[in-house]
Amino acid sequence: MLFSSQSWSAASLLMGSLHALTAQAVPTISAVGSKFFYEDGKQYFLKGIAYQLVPEDPLIDTAQCKRDIVRMSELGANAIRVYHVDPSADHKGCMKAFADAGIYLFVDLDTFNTQIEQTEPHWNQTQFDHFKAVLDEFQQFDNTAGVFVGNEVLTTKDGSAAAPYVLAAARDIKAYRDEKNYRKIPVGYSAADIAELRPMLQNYMACLKDPADRLDFFALNAYEWCGHSSYQVSGYNILQKNATDYPIPIFFSETGCNTVPPRTFDDQAAIFGDEMSGTWSGSMIYEWIEETNDYGLISYGSKVKDAPATNTLIQDGYTRQGVPTPVNPDFNNLKSQWSKLSPTGVALSDYSKSTSTITPPECPASTSGGWAVDPKSPLPTLGQSYKVTGPSSSATSTASSKQSKTSTGATSTSATSSGNSNTATVAGMNGSDRLAKVSALLCTLVGAMAVWL
């Protein structure tokens, strides 16, 4: 089945480009087929930074945003990713400052309390209301380029049952966006890089018959390229193979392995070069601020010991406000990489001629001990939750709005951040293996309890 909305989306964007720039401070970004485009029809590639100075909301301190923007512009960044925001706060100052610098926002809609859970996943009104509130706030800014309905919800090979709940959230937030006549801000998901789920999860998110049930874009948190690796050794060639002919935009929502310091960011040459730029729409580097995990590109001063708990601008010993000072050589290495990487992409006027031929991938079949989603099953409705029902670990969805308090588990492919909704270990550790064993044990115990009751 063809993407029935693709040709219309391309035509609408072309018409909109006739009015671009004159009435807006910054051109908006739209998803057409497998690519992002500015209003003038030029393809948009992300050169982004994960930006979460404090867990609650980094976009309310205009003065700090402006100080950071100077350094981001020096790097050549044109995007940030923010994991948590307060939708009731005033974001106009920071968002205007970023817009003036040509920097776009990709923002997560969830919080620690409203994120979709891998363990007993659910999608309820409380979650939906918060997602809507964040969209309501940020849809007003032209430099809001996309929203995430989840970050690393699936963190183990046994977590595929949560995938339909991610799509249900995307379906409902897209319907709400259109009902409110908001700009068609792309709605996507940021996935953990789990080898056992490749490429099933990626394809499932874009394969369903109704376009309303698919993501608008897919993103990957990948830490495979460490040190002076290569396109083949890192496995990026496999990521590219799996993404070839993918029908919606795909990009790296986190990257920048640090297990072999210093970080040289050699993977950027592959992502923005001939090998991958025809498929991938860029990358987000993890992360802006130096923290315990040593992924920072800048710091705001030396580590502070025994800071009083009342000082909210010093957390985990790291100051989160002030003059941004580059952490070198990492900062300069990234700056050097990005300065020589400027893919031109394709013009929308040319690309739109081929969008009618874009087709979704085949939905992955459910397999024993692997991908456990039946592609013929409908997506969950609002209020459904996933429950294990027997000792065989088979499960069903039931109508329930129970709110889980358990945070999402760890993954071996991500870094730890005070702002990231998942606590995770660095690549090369075996945290995911431990979590998988614990998950399997819990499933067995729950099943046994069900039989006993």
TrEMBL record:
GO molecular function: 1,3-beta-glucanosyltransferase activity
Coiled coil: none
Keywords, comma-separated and alphabetical: Disulfide bond, Glycoprotein, GPI-anchor, Lipoprotein, Membrane, Signal, Transferase
Subcellular localization: Cell membrane
Biased composition (Polar residues): 351-369, 382-391
Membrane-protein topology: Lipid-anchor; GPI-anchor
Enzyme class: transferase
An individual GO BP term: fungal-type cell wall organization
InterPro entries in alphabetical order: GH, Glucanosyltransferase
Coarse class of the protein's main subcellular location: membrane
Signal peptide extent: 1-25
EC number per UniProt: 2.4.1.-
GO CC terms of this entry: plasma membrane; side of membrane
Residue ranges with Low complexity bias: 392-423
Residue ranges of the region described as Disordered: 350-423
Keyword Signal among UniProt keywords: yes
Superkingdom field: Eukaryota
Classification via PANTHER family: 1,3-BETA-GLUCANOSYLTRANSFERASE GAS1, 1,3-BETA-GLUCANOSYLTRANSFERASE GAS2
Family designation: Belongs to the glycosyl hydrolase 72 family.
Its biological purpose: Splits internally a 1,3-beta-glucan molecule and transfers the newly generated reducing end (the donor) to the non-reducing end of another 1,3-beta-glucan molecule (the acceptor) forming a 1,3-beta linkage, resulting in the elongation of 1,3-beta-glucan chains in the cell wall. Involved in cell wall morphogenesis.
Protein's recorded name: 1,3-beta-glucanosyltransferase
Organism: Aspergillus wentii DTO 134E9
Origin organism lineage: Eukaryota, Fungi, Dikarya, Ascomycota, Pezizomycotina
